[in-house]
Amino acid sequence: MTLIVLALVLAACGGGGGGGGGSASASGAQIGSAPLVDRTPSRFQSDLAAYKGRVVVVNFWASWCGPCKAEMPALQQVSREYAGKPVTFIGVDSSDVRDSAGTLLADLKVTYPTVYDKAGINGGIATAWSVASLPQTWFIAKDGSRSGRIPRPLSAAELRNRIDQLLTAAA
Fold it and tell me: What is the model's pLDDT at position 21?
């Protein structure tokens, strides 16, 4: 089953790397305190509880995924546009090599918080969130409930539209 899921992820992104990598551990650090803070599924869920009352955009990606790289500038742009509003963007780097992910974040000047999901589709956050292809974006409503996901790259206009819907929905 794991091989099937991995094949789907690779097919969706046009191939690439995978695997673990990275030796630095920051599992006790807060999301946003540094790029690629280590997270387990349970710790990530605990972290998200702190964002109740805000719309949260959770984007699953990997540095080896071409569509993920193409989508990141739109995520960065929209995250800046919503600065000061009750909206939080969180990237989840899944099943990736940490150094490659860090280089991509720096190259694209990504400023929203990102976490490192070393286990990814092998029992990590991606597994807990039923992520079978990358990129994939989940939206969390202000009440903390998962409001939906889009399993493909998103444009800035699509992101704005979905965020605006959630901001105006009753909490």
Answer: 33
User: For residues 126 and 117, is the Cβ–Cβ distance under 8 A?
Assistant: yes
pLDDT score of 25 more than 70:
no
More confident residue, 98 or 32: 98
Query: Beta strand 136-140 with 146-150: parallel, antiparallel or unpaired?
Result: antiparallel
Q: How are beta strands 37-38 and 114-117 bridged, if at all?
A: parallel
Q: Which of 127, 139, 129, 137 is nearest to 163 (CA)?
A: 139
Of 121, 66, 111, nearest in space to 90 by CA: 111
The CATH code of the domain at 2-168 is 3.40.30.10
Q: For the chain, which residues make up each domain, given as ranges?
A: 2-168
DSSP per residue, 127-170: HHTT--SSSEEEEE-TTS-EEEEE-S---HHHHHHHHHHHHHS-
Max CA distance (Å), the chain = 43
Q: Report residue 15 as tokens.
A: 């191939």
* Residue in the block written with tokens 């920051």: 26
> For the whole model, what pTM was predicted?
0.83
| Rg of the chain, C-alpha, whole Å | 15
pLDDT for 171 beyond 90: no
Q: pLDDT tens digits, residue range 95-125?
A: 999 999 999 999 999 999 999 999 999 999 9
